[in-house]
Design a protein that fits this description.
The chain is an alpha+beta fold. It is built from 26 helices and 27 strands. The strands form six sheets. It has a seven-stranded mixed β-sheet, with helices on both faces. A six-stranded antiparallel β-sheet has the order 7-6-8-14-9-12, with no helix packed on it. A six-stranded antiparallel β-sheet has the order 17-22-21-20-19-18, sandwiched between helices. Strand 1 and strand 2 form a beta hairpin. The protein starts with 8 loop residues before the first helix and ends with a helix. The N terminus and C terminus are likely disordered.
Length: 744
């Protein structure tokens, strides 16, 4: 059935109007600058726990992190995140007090400026703003973790600093309640400096983390920054006016002058130009645009003037869809992260148990002042074991990787897609629009006795003017390029899947496959050998009948993308098993597969057949990726372990897939696999570092080495180590940005 009037049935049918239609997920309006009031309907979510969603700002009940708008927004130049600005203010305003308390605690007894009891009161006054004002957000989060029964890093920080501070306040205000063994140099030992330094170091760690997190969203902000701020709208009376982009509506006529960005998605209605689409597709060469061609918002008009009609605005544009997909992927959790979350919950409870055990072990069995040693070591255990590094280990890697992959034209829908891609061992590829350009091109017309080639093309094009099918458009365009005069068709009829018929110039025409010819009783046996030869070259063939007798045949082909051979060679070299599944006839399918070196071919497959093929391979234990671009590919894309949609394909395909290749280039699969491998390696490094750090730090803080080395870990040193561990995890994740460049 390769010689169908509308071949290949499923594949080509999906390309009638797909050009420029890109997939969109959940369309939320983009959030404005962070300091500005969020628009109505803004949803806030946690960077580490995306299942937490609410309609107002706040803190995550699970980890205590500040909730962020689900849809990121652009901040004005020089404007900082409000939380970062708040933490900076708390840190720098109280840092002198922290330094003063630390100097007094370490050198006050040597300088002898005050008696020791008075020094305790001075340390209390100096540390009070640090702990109660600068550290207030941490205590709030710690209390919330207890209320929500979700122990986290703030549980440990809150317990540790509160224990050190409350103990010191009681020792200063009512020293008589303590036994004499607690006395040291004329006063009960206090640890205001430990509480103050822990708060300041934790603030510093949060500042570093918030700055790093802002870098992970740089890719999204750069995408948002591509969109122009205004558009030049043409009124009904022909007048022109610059209007904010938010005031552009579907159907508006807009002028795009040379050097300007295309304001929204639409179609060219006047003019011709070359448009640079590299900012979204990565394609280096400008694309020629003429009336009828699609335009993508935020691309750059390089030379000529264009008048366009807007078709998609706001959250419906290609750019908004890409931003939403990246944001959604960054906020999703990989399976590895869910494991880390479960471990972290048990870990916090275990740490509290170890801290209590350390306190009592030192109190009952340690050297004098034993209970003081017990308190300090318990606080050190709580601080150094803070699981923030563990919690950040995988989200940071995911955020950096998805942002970088987006700049390479690879969009991951979620973290699970990143984690699973490296496991794929079998790739099923559709033909039309995936291996090929998806834009059929007229090859040739061959005439039967009594007809000429131009006459065959002219009659077929005249009839096809009533069809919007891509194959019909290829024939009509070829006739117009040859400047052949076309007549109007009358009584146009379409026989689904086999061809079309009608009258042109008083003659009855039929254009379609052998099934249509057989139905009409037209003998085309003399043309079949040539038709089979053309099909073996990868062309689709249609027969033309005029007044019940064969007039000739027309061949239309869908050229293979220039990048396809290179992409397939790279994928096969990496060990992937590549299978082609297409709605084209067997002869055409085998011809294209042979040219591309694909050994396994399935032709004339329906959507259900593609789905069945995926299920069959999965039952055999294969990890399957499906690459396609049409509506007919959607079921298989959804069922595959990883669905890969072409960015040049249909919305349905992209909504069904976990990965979208913006450029529609199969080379993106190799890039996506590399990103997957590098990201998982980075996540494992982060998790391994976090676990090793805690495994070494907790025993040291508990004083296990004291009997052998005399070493004890100060809570201040523990706080510094805790902040550095988080910074190191973030720094390691940011290395993926450079790794991503190598992937390109």
């Amino acid at each position: 059935m390769n010689d169908t009037r509308h071949p290949p049935h499923a594949d080509h049918a999906d390309h009638a109007d797909h050009e420029g239609h890109h997939g969109h997920r959940h369309h939320h309006p983009a959030a404005p600058a962070a300091a500005a009031p969020a628009p109505a309907g803004t949803v806030y979510t946690c960077p580490m726990h995306p299942e937490i969603r609410q309609d107002h700002p706040g803190h995550c009940p699970k980890c205590g992190m500040s909730l962020e708008p689900e849809m990121p927004g652009l901040t004005d130049e020089g404007e900082e995140d409000p939380e970062l600005r708040d933490f900076k203010r708390r840190f720098f305003w109280t840092l002198p007090l922290t330094v003063a308390v630390a100097v007094l605690a370490m050198a006050g007894h040597r300088l002898q400026w005050f008696d020791m009891a008075t020094q305790s009161w001075i340390e209390l006054v100096l540390s009070l703003p640090v702990v109660l004002w600068a550290g207030w957000p941490f205590f709030v989060r710690g209390a919330q973790s207890v209320v929500h029964r979700s122990p986290n890093m703030w549980t440990l920080i809150g317990l540790g600093t509160a224990a050190a501070f409350v103990y010191s306040v009681v020792a200063t205000v009512a020293p008589g309640v303590f036994p004499r063994s607690f006395m040291s140099m004329g006063r009960v030992a206090v640890y205001f400096e430990a509480a103050a330094v822990i708060i300041s170091l934790t603030l510093l760690g949060q500042i570093l983390e918030l700055k790093a997190r802002s870098q992970t969203s740089a890719a999204i902000k750069s995408l948002l920054g591509l969109a122009p701020k205004t558009a030049r709208r043409i009124g009904a009376d022909g007048s022109e006016q610059d209007v904010p982009i938010a005031h552009v509506h579907v159907g508006d006529r807009l002028r795009v002058r040379p050097g300007e960005k295309v304001p929204v998605d639409g179609v060219v209605v006047e003019g011709a130009s070359a448009v640079d689409e590299s900012m979204l597709t990565g394609e280096p060469l400008p694309v020629s645009k003429r009336p009828g061609d699609k335009l993508i918002g935020a691309t750059l008009n390089s030379s000529g003037a264009l008048v366009m009609q807007s078709e998609k605005v706001g959250s419906q544009t290609v750019l908004a869809g890409i931003v939403q997909m990246v944001a959604q992927a960054q906020r999703s959790r990989a399976p590895m992260q869910r494991m880390a979350d479960r471990v972290a919950g048990y870990f916090v409870m275990a740490v509290i148990g170890i801290a209590l055990a350390s306190f009592f072990a030192w109190g009952f069995f340690g050297p004098a002042p034993s209970w003081t040693h017990g308190l300090i070591n318990a606080v050190a255990v709580l601080i150094i074991a803070c699981p923030c590094a563990l919690g950040l280990a995988t989200p940071m890697s995911i955020m950096v990787a998805t942002g970088k992959a987006a700049t390479q034209g690879v969009l991951f829908r979620d973290a699970a897609a990143i984690e699973n891609f490296r496991k794929v061992d079998t790739l099923i590829v559709d033909k039309t629009g995936t291996l090929t350009e998806g834009r059929p091109r007229f090859e040739r017309a061959e005439a039967a006795e009594g007809f000429g080639e131009d006459e065959v093309l002219r009659l077929a094009a005249s009839l096809d003017q009533g069809s919007e099918h891509p194959l019909a458009q290829a024939i009509v365009n070829a006739a117009r390029e040859r400047r052949l005069p076309l007549d109007a068709a009358e009584g146009f009829e379409s026989a689904s899947g086999i061809g079309v018929s009608g009258s042109v110039g008083g003659r009855r025409l039929a254009l379609g496959n052998t099934a249509l010819m057989a139905r009409l009783g037209v003998a085309v046996d003399a043309l079949k050998p040539r038709a089979e030869a053309l099909r073996s070259e990868g062309a689709s063939v249609m027969f033309l009948a005029v007044d019940g007798r064969p007039a000739g045949l027309l061949a239309v082909s869908d050229p293979v993308k220039a990048s396809t051979p290179e992409a397939l060679a790279a994928l096969k070299a990496s060990g992937l098993r590549v299978i082609m599944a297409t709605g084209d006839g067997h002869t055409t399918a085998r011809s294209v597969a042979a040219r591309l070196g694909i050994d396994e071919v399935h032709g004339e497959v329906k959507p259900a057949d593609k789905l069945a093929l995926v299920e069959k391979l999965q039952r055999e234990g294969r990890i399957v990726a499906m690459a396609g671009d049409g509506i007919n590919d959607a079921p298989a894309l959804a069922k595959a372990d990883v669905g890969v949609a072409m960015g040049t394909g249909t919305d349905v395909a992209m909504n069904s897939a976990q990965v979208t290749l913006v450029k529609g280039d199969l080379r993106g699969i190799a890039e996506a696999r590399l990103v997957s491998e590098q990201t998982i390696a980075n996540m494992k490094q982060n998790l391994g570092f976090a676990f090793v750090y805690n495994a070494l730090g907790i025993p040291l803080a508990a004083g296990v080495l004291f009997p052998f080395t005399g070493w004890l870990l100060s809570p201040m040193v523990a706080a510094l180590a805790m902040s550095l561990s988080s910074a190191s995890v973030i720094g390691n994740a940011l290395r993926l940005r450079a790794a991503g460049r190598r992937a390109a």
